[in-house]
Specification:
Helix content: 25-40%
Number of domains: 2
Radius of gyration: 24 Å
Shape: globular
Structural class: alpha/beta
Bound molecules: calcium ion
């Protein structure tokens, strides 16, 4: 089987086709949508966003690392896909302790990615193609190489000392010598960093600890200090003056730290989520930055462990904080005991369906983002699909994601159905989080390396960071040099060259998803109903708006599914999206779903 050509979406309408057989014009439904689209204040609600992780996207100069010129060289790929905006993961100057999420200069581009002149050209080239640029904004912490922190290290009286969070050793506790990232015994409390080890780093010179929720090279900024906040807002406005169209805000739920005591312990990320002044800070940022811009920005806050109510507060239309959030519940459903993602458990589809339906409720008063993958998650086709049914399972997952309320995000390479890296040994990995977990689990805790490696292979962030596969040629056309992270050998089969413009490809299926997003207002504004919620393999959501009903139905398994198992018959209607080409007039096709078949029917 191949995947149905999206070009058929634009073919002339015919009377009620057999399900899955033909895709028809949706032009009749688009008038109301175009009226909404005129409302510039809502552009981000009906947009599809593409995430670029620049290190792995395209290398223009043969040093093995993707760069801004590489993005410019491939912008027509994004035009062909039909996305509205790009979220660019950090390209700022950075020592790359966490691949750019440790910024040493917010107003410069790291030389490995290019320079400000190239950035200006990227913005101009994107705008010339109708694409908007959403910058990553990492302001929970800086790099320890940032000038502010270098100054803070000079002593307690330094101008920028209070721009970070310093504490004395825990009174009465005894310290012992320990290597970097290891417990000394007199940390101010027992908070654990996201990359294993204590969340406090010892500064011998001043005899104090500083807080780092992430790596020791990523000290947390002290948002209680109004000078810090003003410096961030000024920097954001500087980028707006350069032409960017919004911000994706890294772990923005962590910026307000709670009151805590010496006996507090556990993950610092959990302790600091949605602190007491988060909403004050975001409302202030909105007044100082977003509200002063002459264009409508897109803002999305990354918020691990945020609750639905908290997300509703952050994204509430009348609250003027952020447009939408990245929540994490659905990508944590297969985490193992104690939330350990490296000890995964099988995903129950019913849990995923229920979770996504619940988060759809956010769009009643606020707004949600929709994603299955990003630079911090493995490839969803390997994680929750079936590589033996790679094209069908990746498109089925994508179509069901896009069928929910919210703004969909496509992570680079997912539009090609790229898979996990399938590395065999730990020395093939580069990710600071993966290496930190391995060190803790194998070297310190003495766990079985084979068992730990099974978890690493399943969940490591490097799975999604292998270079984008442009061609079947050397290094997948990503670089003429040696790639910083190994190219997946399956680029011989999976690559853009064999998919872009090719009917039936995973890429063209995603292009159809983007087109339908712009043509069907029911996708943006419709209500949602989850049918057959407990069925372990059938995923069925129904959207409704102004007398139009969209049914998205998928078989999320590698075995055929008899539609008699559904609680009600599938409605008759126009099939506007399908990932199979059924046999014409086949009664069997009409009454069952093939492995990983998805259908969108409009009635
Ligand atoms: Ca390069």
């Amino acid at each position: 089987m191949t995947i149905g050509t999206p070009d058929a979406v634009n073919q002339a309408a015919e009377p009620t086709p057999a399900p899955g057989s033909t895709r028809h014009s949706v032009a009749d439904d688009s008038a109301a949508h175009h009226a909404r689209a005129q409302d510039e204040t809502l552009w981000w609600r009906s947009a599809v966003v593409y995430q670029i992780y620049p290190r792995s996207f395209a290398d223009s100069n043969g040093d093995g690392v993707g760069d801004l010129q590489g993005i410019i060289d491939h912008l027509d790929h994004l035009v062909a896909l039909g996305v509205d905006a790009v979220w660019l993961s950090p390209a700022y100057r950075s020592p790359m302790a966490d691949n750019g999420y440790d910024i040493s200069d917010y107003r410069d581009i790291d030389p490995v990615f290019g320079d400000l002149a190239t950035m200006d050209r990227l913005i101009a080239e994107m705008h010339a193609r109708g694409l908007r640029l959403v910058m990553d904004l990492v302001v929970n912490h800086t790099s320890d190489q940032h000038a502010w922190f270098r100054d803070a290290l000079t002593g307690p009286d330094a101008e920028h000392r209070d721009w970070y969070i310093w504490r004395d050793p825990r009174p009465g506790a005894t310290a012992h010598d320990a290597g970097p990232g290891q417990w000394r015994g007199d940390e101010p409390n027992g908070w654990v960093s996201a990359f294993s080890g204590p969340a406090w780093a010892w500064d011998e010179a001043s005899g104090q600890y500083y807080l780092h929720i992430f790596a020791p090279g990523q000290p947390d900024l002290n948002w209680e200090n109004p000078k810090v906040r003003q410096a961030v807002y000024t920097m954001m406005n500087w980028w707006l003056d350069r032409g960017v169209d919004g911000f994706r805000m890294d772990v923005i739920n962590l910026i307000s730290k709670p009151a805590w005591g010496p006996d507090d312990a556990g993950p610092a990320m959990n302790a600091c989520s949605v602190g007491p002044r988060l909403h004050d800070f975001l409302a202030e940022m909105n007044r100082e930055v977003m509200a002063t811009s002459d264009k409508v920005l897109m803002t999305v806050g990354e918020m691990p462990s945020v609750t639905l109510d908290e997300a509703a507060d952050v994204s509430g239309r009348d609250r003027h904080e952020l447009n939408m959030v990245f929540q994490f519940e659905h990508v944590w459903l297969d985490n193992g005991p104690d939330g350990d993602k490296y000890r995964p458990v099988p995903l129950r589809l019913a849990d995923m369906k229920a979770n996504m339906a619940r988060w759809a409720g956010l769009c009643e008063t606020g707004w949600n983002s929709l994603y299955l993958g990003n630079h911090d998650q493995p490839r969803f086709v390997s994680r929750w699909g079936d590589e033996a049914h790679r094209e069908q399972s990746s498109t089925a997952w994508a179509a069901m994601l896009h069928a929910h309320p919210g703004t969909p995000f496509i992570y680079q390479g997912d539009e090609l159905g790229m898979t996990d890296a399938h590395f065999e040994t730990i020395d093939q990995y580069r990710d600071v989080e993966t290496l930190g977990y391995w060190h803790q689990a194998v070297d310190l805790d003495g766990r079985d390396p084979d068992e730990v490696m099974a978890g690493v292979r399943y969940i490591s962030r490097d799975n999604a960071r292998t270079p984008v596969q442009w061609t079947a040629g050397d290094n997948a056309g990503f670089t003429t040099g040696t790639p910083w992270l190994a190219v997946n050998p399956n680029h011989a089969e999976i690559n853009a060259q064999t998919q872009v413009g090719v009917p039936g490809s995973v890429f063209e299926f995603h292009a159809a998803l983007c087109r339908l997003r712009h043509e069907l207002p029911v996708l943006t504004d419709g209500s949602i109903e989850l049918l057959d919620a407990d069925h372990p393999r059938l995923w069925w959501v129904r959207r409704r708006l102004d007398g139009v009903t969209l049914d998205a139905v998928a078989n999320m398994s590698s075995a055929p599914l008899d539609l008699a198992e559904a609680s009600q018959p599938l409605p008759e209607g126009r099939v506007v999206l399908s990932n199979i080409v059924p046999v014409a007039d086949d009664e069997v096709t009409a009454h069952r779903l093939a492995p990983w078949e998805v259908r969108w029917t409009l009635s």
